[in-house]
Amino acid sequence: RYVKTVDQILRIMNNIEQIRNVGIIAHVDHGKTTTTDSLLAAAGIISPRLAGQVLAMDFLDVEQRRQMTVKAANISLYHEYEGKPYVINLVDTPGHVDFTGKVTRSLRMIDGAIVVVDAVEGVMTQTETVLRQALEERVRPLLFINKIDRLIKELRLKPDEIKQRFIEIIKEVNNLIETYADPEFKKKWILDPSQGMVAFGSAKDAIGITVPMSRKKGIKIDDIIEAYSSGDKEAIEELKKKIPLHEALLDMVVRFVPNPKEAQMYRIPKIWKGDISTDLGKALMEVDPDGPLVFFVCDMRWDPHAGFVATGRIFSGTLYSGQEVYLVNSKAVQKVLQVGLYMGPYREVVDRIPAGNIAAVLGPDLARSGETIVDLKIKDVIVPFERMRYISEPVVTMAIEPKKTTDLTKLMDALKKMSIEDPNLIVKINEETGEYLVSGMGHLHLEIVLTLLKERFGLEVETSPPTVVYRETARDRSQIFEGKSPNKHNRLYISIEPMNEDTIRLIQQGIVTEDMDPHKRAKILRDEAGWDYDEARRIWAIDENINVFIDKTSGIQYLREVRDTIIQGFRLAMREGPLAAEPVRGLKVILHDAVIHEDPAHRGPAQIYPAVRNPIFAAILTARPTLLEPIQKLEIKFPMDYLGPISSVITKRRGRILNVVHMVGNLVKMLAEVPVAESIDLANELRGASAGKAFWGTEFSRWAPVPDSMLLDIVKKIRQRKGLKPEPPRPEDFLSP
Ligand code: GDP
């Protein structure tokens, strides 16, 4: 075990050829945590200050149980290869793709990824989706086939069958590389085991080997198979010493993952939207430590001893304490109070860190994950890596209050911290009742929040039953409706229509945004979502629930003066739709004509808001309105014998079985969709139906219209819960007399 001082690490960090930024991609349960732990244990950099302390990355038990490990944002490892020292930054990459952009964000931090695949289960959906995205972002993949002991101990495969299994898995991964990697990298990146681009082993036993290692050390796969099939503990101990996993993996990383200088040259043009021919573009591509500071924040976390810690990658320039910086998305100037590097999972304070490295920063606490932090001198020209995204789509809400009223401030504090660390967690105060409304991605997510409140903050809380969040939308194009202001001096003529899926996706992914250049936006909408260019050019606003306001009028007097008021009226209207006061989603709102009063006193918000809202609501209610409900995707693995009972759990809950595939042995994998509304207690039922043998993961899948037969019922229930009269309004209620 190496013990390195901060100075030694810093010296290596100044030498860009000796840096590697990598991540681990794995389907849940395939061994990411075990692999990381074994790297940390064997090759960890232990700061003198912390030597002797137990290194534990998963400080929260509960999260382990939930298969959602909370990890350090980054772990820096020290490794020597052919006598040369390297610092390997291992950035935490989430296991599954969601709408929060967290995966994309973490992929920007890394230049290579170790894909961990369970030898028994092979490539699974999460491996595939994340790997695919990694390839699209030009992250170079390497493969670790894990849990090979299972092939022997559980499946009792013969050596030939085991090798066949390896070939199959490599082929599966290579197929993905073939399909999704840029043509210029394909040839180089296709995994060639004979060169050492694939490791085989057992993370649990910290054993790993590659072909070159096998040649060098005179140990063959057959020796490993032999050790496991005979259950020879001593032989396994021997292997741990001779072919330690960290050596297999870190050698691979040093040899095949490009250093930041090689990587940024071809990655910047892909992951940064600015002009690469400018000085700034060049500094980014060349990882220039003397260039302007560009620091991309991947992770924002609360540390009780230090406050908010921003972890990210320095793409150019140098970070130092005392530096004044500009936060591009927050539009704020803040000061860097402290700069830290990672030693293992811990942060150590240093004076400065140069480009190419991962750094942790205290001071810019207005930053959120995804923020780009830059030198003041480029504040007006910088194109950020990411625009603040509109969308986090929490689908379940619950009210919470502390058991002890004296804990109220403590609860407020804890929730604030948690919602900054976890952008999927939305916290609001219900003004009327004074309770906190906490929204998350599913029932499980909220359960974890409650456990964290208890374990991390010592807070006991009371909760309401969780309620599912819906969206309102319309399925037809409406006619044009007139909206009159209460004083009858202003009139707006408005229609609505549903937007196509392509448009919704472009907005959701932040490719089309409200504040982008209108011509560029119109071009994207025309080319990628079939919009009429002229209509696309007339977009006034895009709200957070993916609705677009379009001005199709021309030459209306005073319209310019009330433009902002109209936009605000549109936003407010879409926040609480006509059916059940749930947010409206996916509509184009089109202004066709208008009459605006000349006197500003007669065209204030109190006049304009209703004139915007009423025609929109009337239009929605005439255009086959409906509710959209969140649908969850489930991936369930279980022994074949339970296919019947598990299928009936799914279908009973309005679920749909999409696919059942045979895996290995008698294991099958089922892909299914179930509405979130039907998934309360799903966990218990699945466990019951399979005698505890089923394993599963869930992911938000999409919004889908509720069945027509249930629409009115659901609408009434939501309205009653909100204290509205149960019957939804009629279009006439919004028409001017
Ligand atoms: P993660 O969800 O990808 O982080 O997976 P974990 O590292 O938590 O591993 C999931 C389960 O697989 C745990 O119960 C581990 O003990 C187990 N596991 C990890 N590596 C191996 C291995 O090499 N062999 C076997 N048999 N089990 C392993």
Automatic annotation (TrEMBL):
One matching Pfam family is EFG_IV
Record function comment: Catalyzes the GTP-dependent ribosomal translocation step during translation elongation. During this step, the ribosome changes from the pre-translocational (PRE) to the post-translocational (POST) state as the newly formed A-site-bound peptidyl-tRNA and P-site-bound deacylated tRNA move to the P and E sites, respectively. Catalyzes the coordinated movement of the two tRNA molecules, the mRNA and conformational changes in the ribosome.
Protein species of origin: Ignisphaera aggregans (strain DSM 17230 / JCM 13409 / AQ1.S1)
Entry's NCBIfam families? aEF-2, small_GTP
Q: Which InterPro entries match?
A: EFG_II, EFG_III/V, EFG_V-like, EFTu-like_2, P-loop_NTPase, Ribosomal_Su5_D2-typ_SF, Ribsml_uS5_D2-typ_fold_subgr, Small_GTP-bd
List the CDD domains hit by this protein, alphabetically.
aeEF2_snRNP_like_IV, EF2, EF2_II, EF2_snRNP_III, Elongation_Factor_C
* Diphthamide modified-residue sites: H602
UniProt subcellular location? Cytoplasm
What GO molecular function annotations does the UniProt record carry, in alphabetical order? Answer: GTP binding; GTPase activity; translation elongation factor activity
Report the superkingdom from the record: Archaea
Give binding positions for GTP.
26-33, 92-96, 146-149
Q: What name does the UniProt record give this protein?
A: Elongation factor 2
The record's GO CC annotations read: cytosol; ribonucleoprotein complex
Report keywords, A-Z.
Cytoplasm, Elongation factor, GTP-binding, Nucleotide-binding, Protein biosynthesis
Q: Which residues form the Tr-type G domain?
A: 17-261
User: Which lineage ranks, top first, belong to the organism behind this chain?
Assistant: Archaea, Thermoproteota, Thermoprotei, Desulfurococcales, Desulfurococcaceae
| Annotated family | Belongs to the TRAFAC class translation factor GTPase superfamily. Classic translation factor GTPase family. EF-G/EF-2 subfamily.
